[in-house]
Design goal:
Blueprint lengths: L1 H21 L8 E2 L4 H10 L3 E6 L10 E6 L5 E9 L8 E11 L5 H14 L4 E4 L5 E9 L4 E2 H30 L1
Helix pairs in contact: 2-4, 3-4
């Protein structure tokens, strides 16, 4: 019996390099070395969100940035902030995207929200969870660097990963809230 398991493992290991060699390491997809608010809004729309682009107020002499407000059914706020826009020596556009989602908290939800954020941050690596300083919101965010190049599919995958992370945080929050009630 054990020899059969060893034989199967040997076959799998022998086939692994051949299978990996069949997958291309390069592609022909268009690469973005910077993004615009409109491009990020298009990715959010493809993800099922209604979007509104708002230009943020820049400090005097500062660079412009934009917030893409995103709405979808559900009790949370979602936005994407494009940052490091029109930097000297880089392509016109923005070099970073900050995805952020939040939900309002009641005073009696604060302890459960803090425990959920702490547990999420210990167990997961995509995104960061925290409670606002005033204790009124539970936030989840992730920053994506565009500098060096990304494809549209990469942007879509990062949005999907962000949303899965947010859903995981919400499940953790609900678990902590139920434990507190018990």
């Amino acid at each position: 019996m054990i020899w059969r398991a060893l034989a199967m493992a040997a076959v799998m290991l022998a086939a692994a390099p051949a299978m990996a060699a069949e997958l291309p390491r390069t592609g022909k997809a268009e690469v973005y070395f910077s993004v615009t608010a409109e491009q990020v809004a298009a990715v959010l729309k493809k993800g099922g969100f209604k979007t509104k682009i708002v230009e943020d107020e820049a400090e005097e002499g500062g660079r412009s940035s934009w917030t893409i407000q995103a709405q979808k059914k559900g009790p949370f706020y979602m936005a994407a902030n494009v940052r490091a826009c029109d930097s000297t020596g880089y392509p016109k556009g923005c070099l970073g995207i900050r995805f952020v989602a939040s939900m309002d908290l009641e005073t009696d939800d604060l302890a459960a929200a803090r425990r959920a954020a702490d547990r999420y941050n210990r167990e997961y690596y995509i995104g960061k969870a925290y409670v606002s300083t005033d204790g009124k919101s539970l936030f989840f965010e992730n920053y994506l660097m565009v500098e060096g190049g990304v494809t549209r599919r990469n942007l879509e995958e990062n949005l999907d990963n962000f949303l899965v992370g947010y859903d995981t945080l919400m499940e953790e929050y609900e678990e902590q809230d139920k434990a507190e009630e018990a």
